Amino acid sequence: MTFYKYSSWMDWYKSHSSDYDGSTAMNYTDDSQGLIGLWDFLNGTADTGLEDGVAQNGKLFGHANVKDGQLHLDGHEDYMTIEGNDNPFDLGQGTIEVQFTQKEHVGTSEDVIISRGEAEDAYGGEVNTPEGYFEIGVTKDGRVYVMHIDDGKKALLKTDDCFFKEGDTLNVSYSWDENTGGTFVVQNLTDSSETTLTHDVKGLDMEIGDNDGESWTVGAREDSDYDGDYSHYFKGAIDYVAIFDNAAPQGDGYVEGTAGDDLIDINYDGDPEGDMIDNEDAILANSDLNDDVVLAGAGDDTVKAGEGNDIVYGDSKQGSAEASPVTIKIDSASAEFANKIYAYTIDPETGEISNVKLLEADARDGVGSTYEYNAAQGAVVGVGIVNEHGQFLSSGYGDNINLNSDCKVHTKGIQQVDETTVKIGFEDWYNLGDKDFNDVKITVDLGTSGASFDNAHYETSSDVGSAIVTEGAGDDQIHGEAGDDTLYGEGGNDTIDGGADDDLIYAGDGNDSVIGGDGNDTIFYGAGNDTIEGGAGDDLIDDADKVILDGADVIDAGDGNDTVYSGLGDDTIEGGTGADLIFGEGGDDSITGGSENDSIYAGDGADSVRAGTGDDSIRGEGGNDTLRGEDGNDFVDGGDGNDSVSGGAGDDTVLGGAGDDLVRGGSGNDLMEGGSGNDYIDSGSGDDTIDAGDGDDTVDAYNGSDSVLGGAGNDSIMVGWQDTEALPDLGYPGLFDADSDPENDRDFVDAGEGNNYVWTGDDRDTIYSGSGNDTILAGIDDDYVDSGAGDDLIVGGEGADTILAGDGNDTVYAGFAPDLPDDLNIPDGEDLVTNNGTDYVDAGAGNDLVFGSDDADTILGGDGDDTIDGGIDADSLIGGKGDDTIILGLPGDAHADYAEGGDDRDTFTGVGAGDTVDGGTGGDDFDTLDLTGLGKWQFNNVTTDADGDSTSGEVNFLDSLGNVTGTLKFEEIEKIIPCFTPGTVIATPMGERLVEELQVGDRVITRDNGIQRIRWVGAKNVTSLDLQRSTHLRPIMIKAGALGSGLPETDIMVSPNHRMLIANEKTSLYFEEPEVLAAAKHLLGTGGIYEVNVPSTTYIHFMFDRHEVVLSNGCWSESFQPGDYSLKGIGEEQRNEIYDLFPELKNQKGLENFEAARRSLKKHEAKLLVH
Over 60: is that where the pLDDT of 459 sits? Predict the structure, then answer.
């Protein structure tokens, strides 16, 4: 049997007395809750609080009185009787509830709170009387009891001793059912204790009527047959007495909860009309027997809807009258604006939005359409537009214009049509189109909804309410279970499980947890931090508030092809299995696509996206996003902001978009674009295509045959350089094998405009760089390099490279750069592979520096003053226009080079036997052939050319016996430098000896101290590269007789700091010294003394116990004098040798004591001697 019972009077009172002011009784007229009798003493009388309640009148005896909403009894013949002749009842199911406070116990036996009938029926042993007997009372030892007797049956229930003490307030409820038994619930409201007792005595009912012995007594027991004999009086106060008829009422089609925390499932029987879950009692239109509508009401409820296509409202109840919803019509004459139309409820004090409903996703499709919106009694309704850019335009409410992202009210105007209808027009704003008030217009008809419209405030009658109204924000649990359910969580932190089949779920506001379950579910969630699980099926999960409200939501779409809109807020989204469509919208979202082919639009904010497996499409849109395509052939577009995007495994398309992006391709043959901004692009493995775009980009392409476009900006492009195990296409016997796949890492690079850095690795690469000062490292194998205009640095590396340096002052190393030793830079006579470095270089216009290195190179200097060093092997060197310096080879290079100077003043050095030199005749022609350091030679077949300024012929190189060892051919040479270095001769007691032959211990003639033994000999080799980097190291040539008096006797070439002895009339005149020492470089300008541009040289030093003046090539010059400068100019090993011999030179005092043999002139002093 179904029965209804409130847990306490206060629960009932709060549910039904919304307007009680504490001074008058609340006359409750609706008996739908089963309340048939109520004595609440609120009106100051003993009458029932119900207008048509049973046993209407109560009669007071003794000193009993009603005051402050209570019946007060003093325990001395005070009581109240209730006669049954007005409206009798006979209840087979019912509840009696009484609330009281005992002030003091009277006597030693029971004190009676309420009784019915005569006590002798119970205590006299007569239990078979037809009238029966009922009593609730208390004992002196703190027990509360109930006795129920009827038709020979008796039930007695009582609490333990000491359940209460005097002064405690107790709430006592006794419910009976003649078919099942009874329940006795006693609550001590003072100490919050509670006990529940039951009995299974059947056949008990309760009566009040005209017969004797059927009256009720409050505060005492009637002892005999209606003769006014009473006893067992109660001393204290009674708050109320209530009687409920628990008989099952007729259902109304709605399973209603209470104001408390309800569990509404198939066992729930608390609906006042008897409606139950899956009870085959559905009566609403178009409903099957188990299609339930659940109104859970206030409180933290749990709803399990069971079978059928159910509708569940988590926080709603039945309203007081039938009402039509608000109707909203898109009334525009034009359908050209593509916007979403929403209705919502606005808090008029705070402007907070709730109960948001999407009316139309595309207003163009809804012109002329009418939509319904359920609004609560007294609600304030608003209508807004969300444009295609996600901007919310509200009709506004008073001063609460903060609803709009730009803090403007967007209503063009509000026009009243009739008492309940208004028209609103929106401004021309944010791509709404060129519309005026008449075009962008929406009609809102409040009808009988009981709502008002924001900005208009059209109020309607207060006695009209909506059919279903929101009662409160409870934390509900709702289970749809089987069937196509419609579930409303509404306010509060709800837990909703749609269960099987295709459910429609409205989570509402609050921090909700929603599980869609199996089936193609549609889930709308509102404000708050929600957790959503779509479950299996093709689900639609949408933030009902769209861009209006936010919240940090957690969404797991589950299996199936799902569509997810996360709205504003920092959301976490898991797409799960299936081809999902995910919109992150606003906020810093974390999105995982899961398996299969997903499409993800991250929206605004700093989003993090992992697409998972499948061929996915990801668009970061606004914000600094982190996007990962992961497995599959993905499309990834970072959009605006400084993004980190990666394709992962598969053949991906990865776009950085605007901003300074980090772009990663991963494995696979990827297409990558950096877009605008200073991007870093890491292509990973595979044959990738990369367009870095504008900005100063960095590209790291790894292995594979990649194609890279640098675009505008100063780019750094590194392609395949990381492969440390790469092998040249041509192997080298004994060192490494040939590349087994010479085509798998062939790269194409067009670095574009700007000062670019390009480094490629294995295989035959093609490199273009455009204008700008570029650095290009071509790596191994036969590369093609076109650096374009600008001052470029190009390193061809291993392989037979083709290099076009273009305009600008370029530096080209056709082989390896000098900081990278080349162990295979070997003359062809010893080289086992003679074609792995045969380079072709066209230096182009500009003053270029070109090094050919190993093998037979072809180098064209082009226009400009170029320096060309062919390196070893038989090279072809063409200077072109300009004053070029052409170095045919290194010392010991026996291969025949061909050198052609072209126009202007060219210098040829590093020549040797077998070489051919053509100075050329064009331009400002004055070509020099430098034979410095080549030992003995002689001219042969020398002729004067037709111009009369140049000569042509041969130079025969001789051995020590005068035999010809080789021949140099030359043409159109205007000047030949015949110098000998080494080859300087030093005077010794044994005659003149070559300086390079002197050793420690040899005796030498000195000017001051006779014959002295050499204590130390050292040599410093100055390479071609040293001389090019540091031109001040070039040696000084002193021609025979240049120092006067026929000295030196023969040409002598010394280091620039080597000091020569000067003795003439000027030394005495200017310095009052007959002899002085002057550095050779300070004598430049004197006739016959000049700097020599040699390919390389060796400076030989020897030292005595003191600084000496020795005879060299017939003139006097100094020996080595240790000092700060001179010691720094020799190697550490030689410096340590000197310190071992002269340890005192380690300190400044020792250096000062090693005095110069003569006064040493400063530069400005030496200039006085120049003539």
Answer: no
Please state which of the ranges 206-215, 483-492, 730-739 shows the lowest mean pLDDT.
206-215
pLDDT for the residue numbered 10: 34
Specify the pairing of strand 421-426 against strand 411-418: antiparallel
Q: Given this structure, which CATH class describes domain 791-977?
A: mainly beta
- pLDDT at res. 158: 97
Please tell me the pTM assigned to this model. 0.54
Single-letter amino acid code for the residue at 44: G
**CA-CA distances (angstroms) from residue 536 to 520, 615, 616?**
8, 21, 20
| Phi and psi angles of residue 766, each rounded to the nearest 5 degrees, phi first | -120, 125
DSSP letter for 179, please.
T
836 and 742 in contact (C-beta within 8 Å)? no
Q: 303: which strand partners?
A: 264, 478
175 within 8 A of 95, measured Cβ to Cβ: yes
519 vs 406, residue with greater confidence = 519
Dihedral angle, C-alpha 85, 86, 87, 92, nearest 10 °? -30
Contact, 594 vs 616, CB < 8 A? no
Q: Enter the tokens of residue 663.
A: 């772009």
Arithmetic mean of pLDDT over the chain: 80
Question: Do 636 and 647 form a contact (C-beta atoms < 8 A)?
Answer: yes
What is the rounded CA–CA span in Å between residue 86 and residue 48? 12
Contacts 24+ apart (CB under 8 A), 524-529: 525/553, 526/354, 526/355, 526/356, 527/353, 527/354, 527/551, 528/493, 529/553, 529/554, 529/569
**What's the gap between Cα 353 and its chain centre?**
30
Domain 985-1121+1156-1169 has CATH 3.30.540.10: no
Q: Where are the domains of the chain?
A: 9-245, 326-453, 791-977, 985-1121+1156-1169
Q: Which is nearest to 783 in space by CA: 747, 822, 833, 823? A: 747
Architecture category of domain 9-245 in CATH: Sandwich (2.60)
Q: Which helix (H) or strand (E) holds 555?
A: strand 554-556
Q: Which residues make Cβ contacts (< 8 Å) with residue 399, sequence separation at least 6?
A: none
- 1037: helix, strand or coil: strand
Residue 419: name the closest of 455, 459, 373 by CA: 459
Look at residue 1124 and give its three-state secondary structure.
Answer: helix
| CA-to-CA dists, residue 1027 to 32, 1030, 1092, angstroms | 113, 5, 11
Long-range contacts of the stretch 866-871 (C-beta < 8 A, 24+): 867/1028, 868/843, 869/910, 869/1024, 870/897, 870/899, 871/814, 871/815, 871/825
Over residues 399-415, the pLDDT tens digits come to 333 333 443 334 444 55
Distance CA 1026, CA 1095 (A): 10
Give the gyration radius of the chain's Cα atoms: 55
Neighbours of 248 (CB within 10 A): 16
**Dist. CA 486–CA 480, nearest whole Å:** 8
Q: How many CA atoms lie within 13 A of 806 on its CB side?
A: 18
Instruction: Please say whether the beta carbons of 579 and 570 come within 8 A.
Output: no
Three-state secondary structure call for residue 778? coil
DSSP string, 881-943: SS--EEE---TT--SPPEEE--SS--EEES--TT-EEE---SSS---EEE-TT--SEEEEEEE
Given a contact cutoff of 8 angstroms between Cβ atoms, the answer to whether 604 and 620 are in contact is no
Relative to beta strand 867-869, strand 849-851 is parallel
C-alpha–C-alpha distance, residues 686 and 649, integer Å:
10
**Terminal-to-terminal C-alpha distance of the chain:** 138
- Three-state DSSP string of 477-521: EEECCCCCCEEECCCCCCEEECCCCCCEEECCCCCCEEECCCCCC
| DSSP per-residue letters across 205-261 | -EEESSSTT--EEESSEE-SSSSS-EES--EEEEEEEEEEE-S-----SEEE--SS-
Q: How many CB atoms lie within 10 A of CB 725?
A: 5
